[in-house]
């Protein structure tokens, strides 16, 4: 059985390849689909087959998927272009007779009100219409998403956001990667939908306490109105669309859009999710 992983040099995709290898999958049975093969030289050295393709290149994708039995479609990073890009991947997979696709979506994609869910929802719909067997890995937030906030928190003593008293059931990227590998290596996954989130469900005030413990400095949470938080992020140098997306996601936290108690992640990986303090401790290493 040949398993392909798209975006295999990205943060999540690389971890999925590592998880497949750790679970005993022969390297020769793994295809790493990447935009820049040179960045996957270490994977090639381990025997993983590296194939070049970009989400925008339908023909290259079809060639990359030749002989693939199962595919992990890791959602693209170019927000605003992902519907068309993901459609290319799905259409190429169908043309290459890929038997199964797992897709990294977002929590409760079909009902979520956060802006990020729009492209995920469209991709889920495209998969449902494709005729390919598929599973949905609806990933929650990554604890690593907060790593960029730690330097400023250390300097100002504050974690800024617009999440109110909502909770986020985040987990480490490695947790989600292990879950994806478990699905890819299991039979009977067609039509399965997994709502994936950590068992540590924190408010931002609690997250500020975690950051404080990690950096050894007092940190408190400063809640801002959504528009004010977006402006602050933009003022800190983030592009306006990214600042708006992050502030919108925080507002989603406030209403429970990034929370789940499904237990799906824990069942797939066979353990508790990685604590926030562990995931964020890399900021001090």
TrEMBL record:
Pfam families: NmrA (PF05368). InterPro entries: NAD(P)-bd_dom_sf, NmrA-like, NmrA-type_oxidoreductase. It comes from the Bacteria. SUPFAM superfamilies: NAD(P)-binding Rossmann-fold domains. Residues 2-247 form the NmrA-like domain. PANTHER family: NMRA-LIKE DOMAIN-CONTAINING PROTEIN, QUINONE OXIDOREDUCTASE 2. This is NAD(P)H dehydrogenase (Quinone).
């Amino acid at each position: 059985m040949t398993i392909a992983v798209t975006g295999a040099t990205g943060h999540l995709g690389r971890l999925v390849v590592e998880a497949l290898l750790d679970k005993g999958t022969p390297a020769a049975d793994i295809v790493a689909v990447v935009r820049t093969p040179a960045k996957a030289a270490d994977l090639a050295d381990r025997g993983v087959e590296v194939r070049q393709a970009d989400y925008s290149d339908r023909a290259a994708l079809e060639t990359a998927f030749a002989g693939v039995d199962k595919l992990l479609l890791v959602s693209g990073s170019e927000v605003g272009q992902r519907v068309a890009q993901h459609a290319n991947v799905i259409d190429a997979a169908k043309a290459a007779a890929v038997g199964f696709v797992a897709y990294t979506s977002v929590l409760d994609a079909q009902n979520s009100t956060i802006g990020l869910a729009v492209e995920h929802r469209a991709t889920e719909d495209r998969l449902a219409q494709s005729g390919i067997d598929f599973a949905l890995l609806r990933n929650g937030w990554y604890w690593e998403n907060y790593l960029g906030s730690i330097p400023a928190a250390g300097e100002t003593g504050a974690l800024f956001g617009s999440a109110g008293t909502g909770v986020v059931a985040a987990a480490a990227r490695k947790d989600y990667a292990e879950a994806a590998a478990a699905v890819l290596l299991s039979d009977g996954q067609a039509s399965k939908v997994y709502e994936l989130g950590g068992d540590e469900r924190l408010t931002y005030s609690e997250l500020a306490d975690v950051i404080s413990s990690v950096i050894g400095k007092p940190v408190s949470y400063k809640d801002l109105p959504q528009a004010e938080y977006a402006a602050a992020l933009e003022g800190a140098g983030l592009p306006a669309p990214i600042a708006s997306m992050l502030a919108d996601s925080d507002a989603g936290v406030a209403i429970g859009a990034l929370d789940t108690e499904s237990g799906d992640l824990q069942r797939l990986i066979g353990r508790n999710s990685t604590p926030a303090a562990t995931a964020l401790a890399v900021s001090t290493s």
